[in-house]
Design brief:
Blueprint: H1 41-50, E1 64-68, H2 70-75, H3 85-94, E2 112-117, E3 120-123, E4 135-138, E5 141-147
Antiparallel strand pairs: 1-2, 2-5, 3-4
The protein binds zinc ion.
């Protein structure tokens, strides 16, 4: 079943952390409670192939935004799918005081990097790579800023 987009204000809340759970993390289907900690890899792929926002699930325009760690920005490889800029800003504002690793990050981030770009590549992991998660590579960064 293809889940319907949800406006930011209607995203489910993480029962543990009390923060909104974006589309790319799952939206609490039976057997898969909504959690902001992990990415749902089926949703990540859906975002990539259907060009929908990883936060609200609605179609993307241009530019698109990516959010991630300093390391991801330095490598130009983001794990969280593309988003609307307004969705990314709203999400990072609501995650400001979250005391946990969220959105598929391995550690808690004090500061996020938010980049905007006109387009991106979706790169699936090669057979021999240790980290088998796919990544998104912005093809030219329009703007990069730090949040947090
Ligand atoms: Zn959105």
């Amino acid at each position: 079943m293809d889940p319907a987009p949800r406006p930011f204000s209607e995203l489910p809340a993480d029962p543990d952390l009390g923060v909104p759970v974006p589309f790319a993390c799952g939206t609490g289907e039976p057997g898969a409670p909504a959690t902001a900690r992990e990415l749902d890899q089926r949703r990540v792929t859906q975002c990539a192939l259907s060009r929908v926002c990883g936060i609200c699930g609605a179609g993307l325009g241009r530019p698109v935004a990516f959010l991630g760690s300093e390391d991801e920005a330095a490598r130009n490889e983001f794990h969280f799918p593309p988003t609307h800029l307004t969705c990314a800003q709203a999400l990072l504002t609501s995650y400001d005081a979250v005391g946990a690793a969220v959105l598929g990050q391995l550690t808690r981030l004090d500061r996020w990097v938010l980049v905007t770009t006109g387009g991106f590549e979706f790169v699936r992991a090669g057979r021999d790579q240790v980290d088998r998660r796919p990544v998104f590579s912005p093809n030219s960064v329009l703007e990069e800023r730090r949040v947090g």
